[in-house]
Amino acid sequence: MNTMGRHVIAELKDCNLEKLIDMQYMERVFVDAALEAGAEVREVVFHKFAPYGISGVVIISESHLTIHSFPEHKYASIDIYTCGDLDPHVAANYIMGSLEAKSTQSLELSRGIGPIKINQ
Amino acid sequence: MNTMGRHVIAELKDCNLEKLIDMQYMERVFVDAALEAGAEVREVVFHKFAPYGISGVVIISESHLTIHSFPEHKYASIDIYTCGDLDPHVAANYIMGSLEAKSTQSLELSRGIGPIKINQ
Questions:
Q1: How far apart are CA A94 and CA A58, in angstroms?
Q2: B41-48 and A117-119 strand pairing
Q3: How far apart are CA A79 and CA B64, in angstroms?
Q4: Phi, psi of B88 (to 5 degrees)
Q5: Distance set, CA A59 to CA A41, A99, B27, B57 (Å)
Q6: First CA to last CA across chain B, in angstroms?
Q7: Do A68 and B73 touch (CB under 8 A)?
Q8: Does the distance separating the beta carbons of B75 and A11 come in below 8 Å?
Q9: Interface test with A, best of B57, B104, B105, B120 (most A CBs within 10 A)
Q10: Domains: count for chain B
Q11: Distance CA A55, CA A49 (A)
């Protein structure tokens, strides 16, 4: 398998608070985001922290999607890492829209056996 | 909780093949790496692909550790993302040593509500 991958790192600000604290919703959004990008979902694990905050991971055949949410700041930090021909931005944009982020910042890294490249 | 985090991205080349294909070993290394860095382990999920390759995630209270291994290339791609006072390099170095990577490339990103900063 080709080791080359695309890794989108994104910070989502001013998200919809109701959505950030709803773990079932978040899980569905992440699975749907993976599917939208054409990925094959292998494992889904989400964890709720007390008093608030959710961390979650979707392992896909093509790498992974992760989130760490900080509802008290209406902020979430996401990673979308895909190998093969998938476009990680499809999943990233789906998540940004679903969490209604009003402001985002992101960059894309090229992963793989070659040098790590940064595309801002 | 403070949103600021440190995210180490690393490519591990020329790893020990026997270790790269041993999922039980890999799980133990990742949990131990998290503990070495002072993290609190919350979820551990590893997935084995046919014919080879392992993807795994450890969700910690302070964010996550992930790996995607490509034994056919003796290569693994890892992410160590920590919030709080933890040093993600402690976990990264532990993993690099445990997989006996002969060559590595890494960079550190500053995550959080502020701008994403890259430290190479």
A1: 15
A2: unpaired
A3: 11
A4: -65, -20
A5: 6, 20, 15, 8
A6: 27
A7: no
A8: no
A9: B57
A10: 1
A11: 8
| Cβ A37 vs Cβ A82: under 8 Å | yes
Residue B41 contacts residue B60 (beta carbons within 8 Å): yes
B61 is catalytic: no
Q: Average pLDDT for consecutive 10-residue bins of chain B (120 residues)?
A: 90 97 97 98 97 96 97 97 96 98 96 84
Cα separation, A32 vs A50, whole angstroms: 26
Give the pLDDT confidence score for residue A48 in this predicted structure: 96
Q: Please report, for the domain that includes residue B63, its CATH number.
A: 3.60.90.10
- Give the structural domain span for A31: 5-119
Sign of CA dihedral B107, B108, B111, B114: negative
Q: Indicate if B83 belongs to the active site.
A: yes
- pLDDT in the model for residue B68: 97
The two structure tokens encoding residue B62:
């302070």
